[in-house]
From TrEMBL:
Residues covered by region (Disordered): 199-256
GO molecular function: translation initiation factor activity
Lineage: superkingdom: Eukaryota
Residues covered by the SUI1 domain: 554-621
Keywords: Cytoplasm
Provenance organism: Agaricus bisporus var. burnettii (strain JB137-S8 / ATCC MYA-4627 / FGSC 10392) (White button mushroom)
UniProt xrefs under Pfam families: Pre-PUA, PUA_elF2D, SUI1, SWIB_eIF2D, WHD_eIF2D
Compositionally biased region (Gly residues): 215-230
Protein name: SUI1 domain-containing protein
Family matches, as InterPro entries: EIF2D, eIF2D_N, Pre-PUA, PUA-like_sf, PUA_eIF2d-like, SUI1, SUI1_dom_sf, SWIB_eIF2D
Length: 636
């Protein structure tokens, strides 16, 4: 999630004392932390800032006022789900704020690179009963050989935070079956851009793996070659001998007997499915939708209305006493397995019960078939269904399939967005101390030759304000200005014409500002620095250039008979070649293009092609915020 720099980070500000108390209570309650750790997890003066990730997801960040470390964050608009950073987990490493998931050392760099933790990469986890979407901390498990020939297994501090993609039970089942898939959806890692906002530094020391049941038995075996560094104890199945005993599976006569429905029970379920279809769909169809062919009624209405979890609707008579969690595949609920055996017989019985009305029609082949000419919405069973059950007594197969299709579509879209974001050009805007800002950075203890991002400058300013106690006591949104701050914001800016006007004696102190809002102060400091930008594209050397980078300009001329689209300013982004773009746009837009090179490169496309050009640029890896599409009125 933080593989790339934040799309936007707003100015941080201290939260009110009442809000801090509420935040502390949320943390203590959500993570079962002891009261004595409250001030450590939510320190006095904690700062908060709104942000957007590089994929435009909104969030809130809570920052340590002393050292600038990010402590907590939320993802999503108005989300209340607090997520600790690795800095927070390192503070209370022995308190187990989050359940632990152990993975081989070779996997950690892959997670830092932005990947999720896959099932084969899980060595073990504790506790064994993890639920889906539960927050977990990911640790590295490595081995070291001692002088006496023994092997010690070492557990790192938390290096990543994520949510379980599946439950611990499913993880164990899928691992035993050698299935692949995601185990943990990684949200934040050591060395990502969220971690970079803090003071960084070395990670805490590794600790020996505690055995004897304190690390629960694994959620899955490690595939060959994916485990920790070699050693006789690297097999997670062997490590279980030092922890909880593995339950021995004993097969007993009848324990493997398959639970099935009787033909009568299937008939009952099909009838319930028909009633469900009448109450929720068929009763609302317009009259011209009838007649409905019998096969269409069965395939499009009855089968999708089957219960997705049949045993919760009709418990099989063959189920053993006190049985729980019996799952029967809904596909077993079919007319051929019922007492009627054929669809026509089933429909005739439904007509006899006054649920539907049928009509016999002759087919071209010479036979006959039924069509449904109407349904009885006033049937007692339909009324009982709607009134007595609120219209929704069970989850249907159609609902499960619709959710699955929606999830697959969402995952496909997210996958494409992720692939696009991985190819995106990284634009890093930075600033260097210059002229009037040099003295301030010297007083901050920062190098005057380095270049800093906005986050870096904001962190240095926060530390400076905290160390010198410059927060205004009457209004914490304001900062009291000391000598170095005043010297910076009142200095002449680079390239500013003219000389400073001479001030009359006695006017200096009265005309100088005494305090300023934090965001205004930040903006003024940046304005007194020298702008630079860094462009990093896949397969290209990083290019650092003085000055601010401008968005690519896509100017669409409208009003003309055919219109035209002009693209300029793409050279600094490294990955766009003018001739290649002209050729590609000619094919996409099925129109003529031209390329000119006067003062700067310009590609012109025939027609009003702003949207097509924008999509092409984003597909090539240009972030959307660096594409400026505008319309101008041309001569007719």
């Amino acid at each position: 999630m933080f593989k790339k720099p934040l799309g936007q980070l707003k100015t941080s500000a201290p939260i009110r004392a009442s809000d801090r108390r509420k935040l502390k209570q949320r943390v203590l309650s959500a993570f079962s932390a002891s009261l004595e750790h409250g001030d450590l997890l939510v320190p006095d003066g904690i700062l908060t800032a709104k942000f957007f990730t590089h994929t435009k997801q909104p969030g809130t960040l809570y920052i340590d006022p002393g050292n600038g470390d990010p402590l907590w964050f939320t993802i999503g608009k108005s989300s209340e789900d607090l997520i600790p950073t690795v800095y927070t987990l390192w503070k209370l490493r022995d308190s187990n704020l989050l359940p632990s998931v152990l993975t081989p050392s070779a996997v950690i760099p892959i997670l830092v690179g932005g990947a999720d933790l896959m099932i084969p990469g899980v060595i073990t986890h504790t506790p064994s009963t993890l639920s889906r979407d539960q927050l977990v901390a990911i640790h590295q498990l490595a081995s070291t050989k001692n002088d006496d020939g023994t092997v010690t297994r070492l557990v790192s501090p938390p290096l990543a935070v994520g949510r379980m993609a599946i439950s611990g039970e499913d993880l164990k089942t899928k691992s035993e079956a050698d299935e692949k898939g995601k185990a943990v959806l990684v949200l934040h890692t050591w060395k990502d851009h969220l971690w970079d906002m803090g003071q960084k530094g070395d990670t805490p020391n590794d600790t020996p793996l505690v055995t004897g049941g304190q690390v629960a038995e694994g959620g899955g075996a490690v595939s060959e070659g994916a485990g920790p560094q070699g050693g006789e104890n690297d097999d997670p199945t062997k490590s279980q001998a030092h922890g909880e005993p593995v339950e021995e599976r004993v097969e007993t006569p009848g324990s493997t007997a398959k639970v099935v429905y009787t033909p009568q029970e299937i008939t009952d379920l099909l009838t319930k499915s028909l009633i469900h279809a009448i109450a929720t769909q068929l009763s609302t169809l317009p009259k011209d939708s009838y007649p409905i062919p019998s096969t269409q009624l069965y395939q499009s209405y009855i089968l999708p209305s089957r219960p997705a979890f049949p045993s919760s609707v009709v418990l099989p008579s063959s189920a053993p006493p006190d049985s729980e969690n019996i799952h029967i595949d809904p596909s077993e609920i079919a007319v051929k397995a019922s007492t009627y055996k054929t669809l026509s017989t089933f429909l005739k019985a439904a007509e006899k019960s006054s649920l539907i009305t049928l009509k016999t029609v002759k087919q071209k082949s010479g036979g006959s078939d039924y069509v449904v000419t109407g349904v009885n919405c006033e049937h007692p069973d339909v009324n009982a269904y709607v009134i007595g059950q609120g219209g929704k007594p069970y989850v249907t197969v159609a609902e499960i399939e619709a959710k699955k299709a929606k999830r697959l579509a969402r995952e496909g879209k997210e996958g494409k967005e992720r692939e696009r974001s991985e190819r995106e050009v990284e634009i890093r805007q930075c600033w260097k101390p210059w002229l009037g800002s040099l003295g301030l950075f010297e007083d901050m203890g920062a190098s005057t030759s380095n270049m800093y991002t906005l986050n870096d400058i904001r962190g240095l300013l926060t530390k400076y304000i905290t160390s010198r106690q410059l927060i205004n006591q009457h209004d914490q949104a304001y900062i009291n200005l000391d000598g170095p701050l005043i010297g910076c914001i009142t200095a002449k800016r680079a390239g500013e014409p003219g000389k400073k006007a001479e001030k009359k004696p006695g006017e200096d102190k009265s005309s100088l500002p005494e305090f300023m809002k934090r965001d205004e102060l930040m903006r003024s400091i940046v304005e007194h620095m020298q702008a630079w930008h860094e462009v990093k594209a896949e397969g290209k050397d990083v290019v650092t250039t003085k000055g601010e980078i401008e968005p690519i300009q896509v100017k669409v001329t409208v009003g003309a008979r055919r219109g035209r689209t002009e693209i300029t300013g793409f050279e600094p982004f490294l990955i766009i070649d003018g001739e290649e773009m002209a050729d590609r746009m000619r094919k996409i837009c099925a129109g003529s293009t031209s390329r000119t090179n006067h003062q700067r490169l310009k590609v012109t496309v025939q027609g009003k092609q702003g949207q097509a050009v924008g999509e092409y640029l984003m597909e090539r890896g240009i972030p959307k915020k660096w594409i400026m599409i505008s319309e101008v009125v041309g001569k007719k």
